[in-house]
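We were asked to recover a plausible sequence for a given structure. The inputs and outputs are reproduced exactly as logged, with field labels preserved.

PROBLEM: sequence recovery
POSITIONS: 461
GIVEN STRUCTURE:
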């Protein structure tokens, strides 16, 4: 049975203090918990009472895998019972985007699938190839919109201001693609590779209003270095690696809306900064065919596994999933989110465990467990302008961070919104459609449940 849902805009809702009590009889403990209402009558999704602890996977419920604040509900949009692309394995639903502009804006949800082809994958995967799927949120129809044996580990996806979709591959020297949709059938289109944007271990992608494209290299640049034949990233001390790769990049097309040609730049710091923060600059142009090594060779900053990007009000946020490691292989800290001011190129630590978010200790159910911020992965813009973050971790938590910052550029408020009870799975692809501010879309991949990979909608009726 199809699990599709159609989320309509809510009716105007007005709450007044005279209608609320503080004794808990109507579910309101105090006036600080009252939902805010914006000018359109929509509930402010971000004004929630945070959950206190991450989910404990013991006796988890596949029909309700997310631990949520009181009053929020979760519904399957589409899972492997609707479309099972890889029948013998999980479909690894990864990232989401809708048609954000144009006719029927918000109706179609496009999803990448991160399955990895090759010698270790089931043989039938190689015959099928990687895929991008689409869900009609009005009718529930679900289908593959793009698939090729040249695709593997298809990951990031974004809507462009000119009405196309860009997506990419996370493999080493992975490709960047553009999907031009059929104006008469938004569930069909033509894919073109865009090598000028760079060959990288792609994940996050953002396109600004001027048509510039921002991408990352999901590589452990601080510990893995580079191993290209030219020796870039290798010191004169034998096999010791210098930081290399794991950068953040900006592609500037020669012509707005045309990704076939342009210049690729890498984020760097004129004054060496081990932390990768401070006054940055876009260095280049660099060679897109050898973007990791050429970017590092020109002085690009190396981060430890950057994964996703999100632009909010002229600031580019970057999820750095891991922290650098010491000589024993232990992380100095559990990842972070950077904030890059796109006008000044000033780079700051926006969210970081131990700075403005709690440090995670142990796992739920263990003695001494402390819920905390760990291995941040994907990012999204909330309707009120907050940054939403989901972890590549077990348990996989969802956090909201205010973009109001202190004098050092760190968020003033970081709150725990949800936690995934499926201990074997990961939440990914968090996304708010600009046409539907009351629904948070999030994918679950490598679920422990049969046919459990899919897309969920979290709402508050």
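RECOVERED SEQUENCE:
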């Amino acid at each position: 049975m199809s699990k599709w849902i159609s989320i309509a805009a809510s009716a105007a809702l007005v709450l007044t203090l005279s209608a609320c009590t503080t004794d808990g009889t109507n579910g309101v403990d105090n006036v600080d918990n009252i939902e805010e209402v914006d000018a359109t009558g929509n509930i402010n999704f971000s004004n929630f009472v945070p959950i206190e602890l991450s989910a404990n996977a013991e006796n988890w419920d596949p029909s309700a895998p997310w631990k949520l604040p009181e009053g929020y509900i979760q519904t399957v949009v589409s899972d492997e019972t609707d479309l099972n692309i890889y029948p013998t394995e999980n479909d690894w639903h990864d990232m989401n985007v809708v048609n954000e502009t144009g006719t029927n804006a918000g109706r179609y949800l496009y999803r990448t699938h991160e399955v990895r082809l090759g010698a270790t994958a089931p043989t039938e995967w190689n015959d099928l190839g990687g895929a991008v799927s689409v869900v009609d949120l009005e009718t529930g129809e679900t289908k593959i919109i793009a698939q090729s044996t040249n695709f593997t580990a298809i990951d990031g996806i974004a809507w462009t201001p000119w009405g196309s979709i860009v997506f990419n591959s996370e493999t080493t020297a992975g490709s960047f693609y553009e999907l031009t949709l059929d104006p008469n059938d938004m569930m069909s289109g033509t894919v073109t590779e865009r090598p000028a944007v760079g060959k990288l271990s792609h994940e996050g992608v953002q396109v600004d209003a001027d048509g510039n494209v921002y991408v990352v290299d999901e590589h452990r640049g601080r510990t893995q270095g580079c191993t290209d034949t030219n020796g870039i990233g290798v010191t004169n001390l034998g096999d010791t690696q210098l930081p290399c790769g794991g950068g953040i990049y900006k592609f500037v097309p020669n012509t707005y809306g045309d990704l076939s040609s342009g210049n690729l730049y890498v984020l760097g710091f004129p004054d060496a900064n081990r932390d990768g923060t401070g006054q940055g600059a876009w260095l280049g142009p660099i060679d897109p065919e050898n973007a990791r090594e050429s970017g590092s060779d020109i002085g690009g900053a190396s981060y430890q596994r950057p994964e996703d990007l999100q632009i909010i009000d002229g600031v580019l946020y970057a999820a750095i999933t891991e922290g650098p490691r010491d000589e024993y292989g232990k992380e100095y800290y559990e990842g972070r989110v950077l904030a890059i001011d796109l006008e000044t190129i000033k780079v700051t630590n926006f969210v970081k465990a131990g700075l403005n978010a709690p440090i995670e200790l142990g796992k739920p159910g263990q003695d001494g467990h402390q819920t905390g911020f760990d291995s941040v992965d994907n990012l999204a813009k909330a309707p009120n302008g907050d940054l939403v973050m989901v972890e590549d971790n077990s348990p996989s938590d969802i956090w909201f961070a205010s973009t109001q910052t202190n004098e050092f550029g760190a968020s003033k408020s970081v709150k725990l919104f949800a936690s995934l009870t499926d201990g074997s799975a990961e939440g990914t692809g968090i996304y708010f459609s600009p046409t539907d501010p009351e629904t948070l879309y999030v994918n679950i991949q490598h679920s422990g449940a049969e046919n459990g990979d899919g897309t969920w909608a979290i709402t508050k009726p």
